[in-house]
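Running co-folding for FE2/S2 (inorganic) cluster.
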Amino acid sequence: MATIVVNGVKRELQAPADTPLLYVLRNELELSGPQFGCGVAQCGACTVHVDGQPMRSCVAPVAAMSGRKVTTIEGLHSRAAKAVQKAWVELDVVQCGYCQSGQIMSATALLEQNPTPTDTDIDHAMAGNICRCATYVRIRAAIHAASATLSA
Ligand code: FES
Ligand code: FES
């Protein structure tokens, strides 16, 4: 049995050590923010933060999370996170919504490390997050809007 810290809370797990973190988050801890998309680290729908860095939880064995800080969108409360969520609403970024938890996790991680990203920085940071509704233009605009909020 593994113990991990998710959204600031220590959790004792029943899942085997090689279970993907995403399955533990959704099925055992009932955190439905991270989504299952491809299952092979190609779409970004399952993105969470591990020690502040974006990580594809579909391919991360839960045993590797021991002693590390896992954050899902449910536990995202930083200043950058609030700026991102506000911008997402104001610019009406979401279409079907399936990819958006992962998009917000990657965008927040970017702004926490680089509060004034260029278009190139944004494209690089968001390259692994696929949106089948093609909301990319609004995502980029929302990241710039969140950046402006952080700089105000
Ligand atoms: S479900 Fe993890 S990257 Fe697609
Ligand atoms: S909003 Fe539909 S997949 Fe991105």
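Result summary
The chain has a mean pLDDT of 97.
The pocket of FE2/S2 (inorganic) cluster (ligand 1) is lined by residues 36-39, 41-46, 56, 58 (CB under 6 Å).
Job closed.
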